[in-house]
Amino acid sequence: MQRSLVLLSGLALACGRPGEPPGELAQPAPELIRPEAGNVDAFGHVMLPAGAHASCEVHGVPLEDDVIAVLNGLPYIDTAGYSAAQRKEFPHDATLYYGGCMGDGSWASVSYCPACRAAELEWEQAAAAAGKKYSYDSAMRSRIREELERLGPAPSLPATR
Questions:
Q1: pLDDT digits (tens, 9 = 90+) for 52-111
Q2: How far, in Å, are 7, 129, 152 from residue 27 at the CA level?
Q3: How much is the CA Rg of the chain, to the nearest whole Å?
Q4: For residues 26 and 14, is the Cβ–Cβ distance under 8 A?
Q5: Pick from 19, 59, 142, 146: CA 20 to 30 A from residue 97's CA?
Q6: What is the CA angle 98-52-134, rounded to 5?
Q7: Is 98 left (phi over 0), alpha (psi -120 to 50) or beta?
Q8: Domain boundaries, the chain
Q9: How far is CA 66 from the centre of its chain?
Q10: pTM for the predicted model, two decimal places
Q11: What is the DSSP string of 71-100?
Q12: Closest by CA position to 55, among listed 109, 7, 92, 2
């Protein structure tokens, strides 16, 4: 029986042909990526490592730490103006890390701005209301995280402070 491989955020799922039961989930070792300061992901989003001890230049609030899902592969992204808005309005939302074609890992420890996340959500809702749905909106990001957590809980943040 021939099977294909579907990659989603560090997940590898062997799928059967239509009408056949899916294969087993391949469980990757939970790996935690820690981006270097100023590192950019595969789509040019600037990521700061957890423990960056910085403040958001747009909102002026201290950055907090989080563990976020990594989306490996080369996903289709209908950006709906997302990248331009992100650079200007919510540069430290850090909601999803795009690992790229050769991405490795399932999780990333990053610093984020809570006000940027709120601004990103407002932008996403306004874009959707205007008929420009963002491909990796909050619902899709939640689904990716849930799928990863089915394989095991997200790793804890490393002690950096």
A1: 888 999 999 999 999 998 888 776 666 668 888 888 999 999 988 888 777 666 888 899
A2: 12, 38, 9
A3: 17
A4: yes
A5: 59
A6: 30
A7: beta
A8: 29-150
A9: 11
A10: 0.73
A11: EES------TTHHHHHHHH-TT----EEEE
A12: 92
- Give the CB-side neighbour count of residue 67, counting CA atoms within 13 A: 17
Q: Which residues contact 123 (CB under 8 A, 6 or more apart)?
A: 82, 85, 89, 90
Smallest CA-to-CA distance from 69 within 155, 129, 2, 133 is with 155
Which pair of tokens denotes residue 91? Answer: 């540069």
Helices marked H in 39-81 — which ranges?
none
User: Is the separation of the CB atoms in 110 and 96 below 8 Å?
Assistant: no
Helix-strand-coil percent breakdown of the chain, rounded to 5?
25, 25, 50
Closest CA to 121 of 107, 142, 106, 102: 142
In order of 75, 88, 125, 126, the CA distances from 131 in angstroms are 21, 21, 10, 9
Distance CA 124, CA 137 (A): 7
